[in-house]
């Protein structure tokens, strides 16, 4: 993200901050699989557009995780990574900063359930170019025993 520090404005396109999504899940053995007529649970997430503060000294992202499946998903974990690495000033519960990433452990999401969160990162004065956030989500289709 290019920032004009003198005037606190963004230069260039507002889309210079990028969000990338990756979703993974753990397959279970056929003995553990859910009934064939039920859609397996899954977790999907999206990032909202990056929001640069008026002074240009921070950038924030909002995300939403949804279980659009017909069954619950368990041990849902979302990991965020910033490129270049930036100091994370604030992150929503239940997330924790675990340099060089942010890890959010949500437990179980029921069918149709959504959870949301925010991450705010500082933009040092010498920041220029693109700031990128990448997300990865994992879950289990059956609770662990």
Describe this entry's structure for a reader.
With 145 residues, this protein is mainly beta. It has one domain (2-140): Mu homology domain, subdomain B (Immunoglobulin-like). The chain has strands at residues 2-4, 9-11, 18-23, 44-47, 51-52, 58-66, 73-83, 88-91, 95-98, 101-109, 114-122, 132-140. A five-stranded mixed sheet has the order 3-12-7-10-9, with no helix packed on it. Strand 1 and strand 2 (9-11) form a beta hairpin. 24% of the residues are buried. Mean pLDDT is 80; it is low at 1-17 and 22-37. This is DUF11 domain-containing protein. Residues 1-35 form the signal peptide.
Q: How much β-strand is present in the residues?
A: over 45%
Give the neighbour order of strands across the main sheet. 3-12-7-10-9
| Count of helical regions | 0
Class of secondary structure makeup: mainly beta
Provide a short characterization of the protein structure.
With 145 residues, the protein is mainly beta. The protein is built from no helices and 12 strands. Strand 5 and strand 6 form a beta hairpin.
What descriptors fit this protein?
mainly beta; five-stranded antiparallel sheet; 12 strands; elongated; disordered N terminus; DUF11 domain-containing protein; signal
Per-chain topology:
Blueprint: E1 2-4, E2 9-11, E3 18-23, E4 44-47, E5 51-52, E6 58-66, E7 73-83, E8 88-91, E9 95-98, E10 101-109, E11 114-122, E12 132-140
Parallel strand pairs: 3-12
Antiparallel strand pairs: 1-2, 4-6, 5-6, 6-11, 7-10, 7-12, 8-11, 9-10
Signal peptide: 1-35
Keywords: Signal
Protein name: DUF11 domain-containing protein
């Amino acid at each position: 993200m290019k920032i004009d520090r003198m005037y606190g404005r963004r230069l260039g396109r507002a889309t210079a901050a990028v969000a990338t999504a990756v979703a993974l899940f753990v397959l279970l053995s056929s003995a553990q699989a859910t009934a064939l007529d039920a859609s397996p649970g899954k977790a999907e997430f999206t990032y909202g557009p990056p929001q640069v503060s008026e002074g240009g000294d921070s950038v924030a992202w909002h995300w939403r995780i949804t279980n659009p499946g017909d069954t619950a998903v368990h041990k849902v974990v979302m990991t965020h990574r910033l490129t270049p690495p930036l100091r994370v000033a604030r992150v929503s519960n239940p997330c924790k900063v675990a340099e060089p990433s942010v890890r959010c452990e949500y437990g179980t999401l029921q069918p149709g359930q959504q959870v949301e969160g925010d991450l705010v990162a500082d933009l040092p004065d010498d920041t220029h170019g693109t700031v990128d956030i990448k997300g990865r989500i994992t879950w289990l289709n059956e609770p662990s025993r």
